């Protein structure tokens, strides 16, 4: 199972992504992640969520190879809707979500982390939105919650990555620790939250979302519209084929 969920005795629910080799999630994986977070929100015994991953990195975004080996647009539409559901589930989870980021956090991974409430990272972690390399747009909404405006534009246009250690200075990453200590660091923050009255924390989460200056759900959906335009133009397919090493003549017509 790429997504697992475990409720600890202290009220901390640990949601783990594990989809080798790079933790890029297929369409169903995004929906499963959304379902796990929705379950956490509905369970009054859950006081806080730790979102983490096993493997070399936190999340490498969507499974582009699945998309390029699927005839028609079902996988593309499924990935867009699945990402939207997962990002929304993180943001609207009734309890705080603490993201524990190891290694790389790219594309859809940034969508998850940017909508989280607290971020701790390993000292070798890095973040990026390489969407332009694959002829897509998205997750700028969420990267904008991690870096200042001009840094966002530079990272987005160049597809560069930024180290977690550099994000600490912006206040978006709480702290960085050696990878072996990451889970404990996330549990420490989550444990502090879990000690509070969960009725107050749930009200606080709703209140803080209510005063956010940007509606992240609508903002991300707006970005996705340009992705569809690029697909209609054939640009996205061409770049994804190059990335996935797909022979267009041997896959279904799109």
UniProtKB/TrEMBL annotation:
InterPro entries: ClpP/crotonase-like_dom_sf, Enoyl-CoA_hydra/iso. The keyword Iron does not apply. One of its GO terms (molecular function) is lyase activity. GO terms for biological process: fatty acid beta-oxidation. It comes from the Bacteria. The keyword Transmembrane helix does not apply. Keywords: Lipid metabolism, Lyase. Belongs to the enoyl-CoA hydratase/isomerase family. NCBIfam families: PRK07938.1 (NF005925). This is Enoyl-CoA hydratase family protein.
